[in-house]
Amino acid sequence: MEYHDSEKAQEVAGRVEAFMDEVVLPLEREMLATGDTISNDELAELWEMAKERDLFAPQMPEEYGGQGLDFADMLPSFEQVGRSLIGAHSIRANAPQEGNMHTLEMVGTEEQKEEYLRPLVQGEMTSGFSMTEPMQGGGSDPKMLQTTAIKDGDEWVVNGHKWWTSDGWDADFFLVMARTDLDEHPYAGTSIILVPRETEGVELVRNVGHLGAPELLEASGGHAEIKYNDVRVPVENTVGEEGKGFQIAQMRLGGGRLTHCMRYSGMAERALEISKAYLSEREGFGSDLAEKQTLRQRIADAETKLHMARCGVRHAARELDRSEARIEVAMSKVYTANVCNEIMDLAVQCLGANGVANDLPVAAFYGDVRAFRLFDGPDEVHRRTIARHAFEDVATEEIEHALRFDEDRIVDELKREAPADD
Ligand SMILES: Cc1cc2nc3c(=O)[nH]c(=O)nc-3n(C[C@H](O)[C@H](O)[C@H](O)COP(=O)(O)OP(=O)(O)OC[C@H]3O[C@@H](n4cnc5c(N)ncnc54)[C@H](O)[C@@H]3O)c2cc1C
């Protein structure tokens, strides 16, 4: 499908596609065949190759070693790396690292950029974004945040209990969402505090086991449950303006949601490619399975929806380069997540038992994609945002005329029907 992305976007994506076809997909096939994981050393080799090909960290400015692409231009490259579970990692464009880089680049101080952002981009450091908490803390409703950071002299004292901090087990530092002014509404009194992992009081409790969890990468840092017990860091570790944590998180998540859409749409495309190849080769009931109309209809619907999702993401990315694009991003997130889930289910069905075998990547995709409807805001929360917008400025004149007309007519009829002395 031709999307008329900018020349620059197409040029970089073409090189990313070649890198995926020549290096990443063969490596992934080898891993699936042997059941091995990629070691940190192998990942570092992939990074070197990506750097040699000028593909590394497309989302970051060139001064930090990235490609300096905006959202609209990085989009086709992210779709390409999404075709493999190790694709985004191989060019350092994986969540949550990419979102955390984006946050530090947007609002970090020069010192934070030198000490944390530069090594983060280069893969010398890794990071976690610590927002979600166990019951009854912040989750779908982030206003329920319980973690606090209270000033004591020139230090923050952080206390709280988080979980699902992606890559948390291996992280060198965390961006912790904490309430810093308890008298304010959470939206006005929450800040992001950078906490180095080695700080006293940081307690890594466990990695949360979950559906899918393909252990293709040794370097994948799991989803950590973490306690912050009287953790002291300097007030200079505030990331962005104090009290603006939610606004900054929103900027981070807006971009993060779109990059997830881009990567997962690449994954759905590959699952469809594999399914179509299988259906074209496999015979049953007197013909290729690809000739069965029930399957063809479903593949046609899947192709259509994937195309619609990609168009929507492209529109949202262009808007996000100009503004907050909250509604466009919410629509893209919920639509793409559902389309990718539908497609992965269809792919498993088309492949028969091969759909759930580890010989192909589709089983791992299937396990991985379900969480996309939950993280970075579950479906219902995005629909809530979209509905709130939809009910703003409702044009009541659309019904006023009809209802007044009815009302007048009914009153007239009642008057006519009523006995004179009633
Ligand atoms: C793979 C994965 C990676 C993650 N990575 C991170 C990370 O790096 N950092 C981090 O901080 N968090 C992370 N999370 C956590 C994730 O962001 C939260 O799980 C998500 O915000 C939902 O919060 P919750 O699990 O507490 O669900 P709850 O808030 O308990 O909600 C449960 C369900 O209720 C429904 N619901 C909620 N609100 C409404 C409503 N208003 N109307 C109707 N229905 C509603 C939804 O279906 C929702 O799924 C990750 C989660 C997963 C699965």
From TrEMBL:
Acyl-CoA oxidase/dehydrogenase middle domain mapped to chain residues: 129-212
Entry superkingdom: Archaea
Gene3D superfamilies in UniProt: Acyl-CoA dehydrogenase/oxidase, N-terminal domain, Butyryl-CoA Dehydrogenase, subunit A, domain 2, Butyryl-CoA Dehydrogenase, subunit A, domain 3
Cofactor(s) needed: FAD
Cross-referenced Pfam families: Acyl-CoA_dh_1 (PF00441), Acyl-CoA_dh_M (PF02770), Acyl-CoA_dh_N (PF02771)
Keywords from the named record: FAD, Flavoprotein, Oxidoreductase
GO molecular function: oxidoreductase activity
Domain Acyl-CoA dehydrogenase/oxidase N-terminal, chain residue ranges per copy: 6-124
InterPro entries associated with the record: Acyl-CoA_dehydrogenase, Acyl-CoA_Oxase/DH_mid-dom, Acyl-CoA_Oxase/DH_mid-dom_sf, AcylCo_DH-like_C, AcylCo_DH/oxidase_C, AcylCoA_DH/ox_N, AcylCoA_DH/ox_N_sf, AcylCoA_DH/oxidase_NM_dom_sf
Domain Acyl-CoA dehydrogenase/oxidase C-terminal: 243-390
Enzyme Commission number(s): 1.-.-.-
Record flagged with keyword Oxidoreductase: yes
Family designation: Belongs to the acyl-CoA dehydrogenase family.
Protein name as catalogued: Acyl-CoA dehydrogenase family protein
